[in-house]
């Protein structure tokens, strides 16, 4: 039974391939890459020099190196550890494959693309943090439960004691700790009443 290399298209007997340890490991990696295997085999072909195919050992080493990044989501470049998601790694590999490069010596070109993307993302995050610090609303906090109740037009429990709500003549009335009746009003209602009182002349005023 003949099979084809997903990278170079070379046809060979499956029985012969399985006798070679490197071929067996390459086939195992193809399975681990799953639906992305063809893309990564195409990427490895960018290391070919001229028309000469890569040796099985060379192809295996390159696949194993890039698979570590694919599996762990991290790589070392210029003595700095970078983290990368699988979709971003795949997009970077596609960029290289679309350029149809030939004769790559190592994975540094791929790592450079990934590192630049990561640094741009980090720079964008730092910019957002700087804008947040400069914002006049940076110290605003989530309102407390008491503030939420107050904003809803209900007087919260305070030091004088709890309150209770009753219905009186179809109107919702609050009875505070002193037994006094209060009608809860929303902030909008309070503002409207305030405007009315400002515009209304008081008795005896000119």
Mind sketching the topology for me?
Layout: E1 2-4, E2 11-13, H1 14-19, H2 21-33, H3 37-44, H4 56-72, E3 74-77, E4 80-83, H5 86-98, H6 108-134, H7 145-151, E5 164-168, E6 171-175, E7 181-182, H8 187-199
Antiparallel strand pairs: 1-2, 3-4, 5-6, 6-7
Helix pairs in contact: 2-3, 2-4, 3-5, 5-6
Cα-atom radius of gyration: 35 Å
Record field, number of beta strands: 7
Low-confidence stretches are 152-160
Largest sheet: 3 strands, antiparallel
What is the average of the pLDDT values?
74
Range of helix content: 40-55%
Envelope shape: elongated
DSSP strand (E) fraction? 5-15%
Describe this structure in words.
The chain is 50% helix and 13% strand. The longest helix is centred in the middle third of the chain and has 27 residues, at 108-134. A hairpin with a 6-residue loop joins strand 1 and strand 2. It has two domains: 2-134, no CATH class; 153-199, no CATH class. Residues 152-160 have low confidence and may be disordered. It starts with a strand and ends in a 7-residue tail after the last helix. The protein is α+β, with helices and mostly antiparallel strands and 206 residues long. The chain has eight helices and seven strands; from the N terminus they run E-E-H-H-H-H-E-E-H-H-H-E-E-E-H. The chain has a three-stranded antiparallel sheet with strand order 5-6-7, with no helix packed on it. Helix 2 crosses helix 3 (37-44), helix 3 crosses helix 5 (86-98) and helix 5 (86-98) packs across helix 6 (108-134). It has helices spanning 14-19, 21-33, 37-44, 56-72, 86-98, 108-134, 145-151, 187-199, and strands at 2-4, 11-13, 74-77, 80-83, 164-168, 171-175, 181-182.
């Amino acid at each position: 039974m003949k099979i084809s290399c997903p990278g170079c298209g070379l046809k060979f007997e499956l029985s012969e391939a399985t006798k070679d340890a490197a071929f067996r490991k390459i086939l195992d990696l193809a399975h681990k890459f799953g639906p992305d295997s063809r893309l990564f085999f195409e990427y490895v072909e960018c290391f070919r020099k001229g028309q000469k195919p890569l040796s099985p050992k060379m192809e295996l080493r390159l696949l194993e190196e890039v698979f570590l990044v694919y599996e762990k989501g991290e790589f070392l470049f210029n003595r700095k550890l970078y983290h990368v998601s699988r979709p971003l790694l795949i997009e970077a590999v596609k960029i290289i494959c679309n350029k149809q490069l030939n004769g790559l010596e190592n994975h540094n070109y791929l790592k450079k693309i990934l590192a630049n993307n990561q640094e741009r993302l980090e720079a964008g995050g730092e910019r957002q943090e700087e804008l947040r610090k400069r914002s006049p609303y940076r110290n605003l906090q989530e309102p407390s439960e008491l503030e939420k109740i107050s904003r809803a037009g209900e007087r919260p429990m305070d030091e004088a004691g709890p309150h209770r709500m009753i219905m009186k003549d179809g109107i919702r009335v609050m009875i505070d700790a002193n037994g006094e009746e209060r009608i809860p009003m929303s902030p909008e209602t309070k503002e409207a009443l305030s405007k009315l009182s400002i515009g209304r002349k008081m008795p005896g005023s000119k």
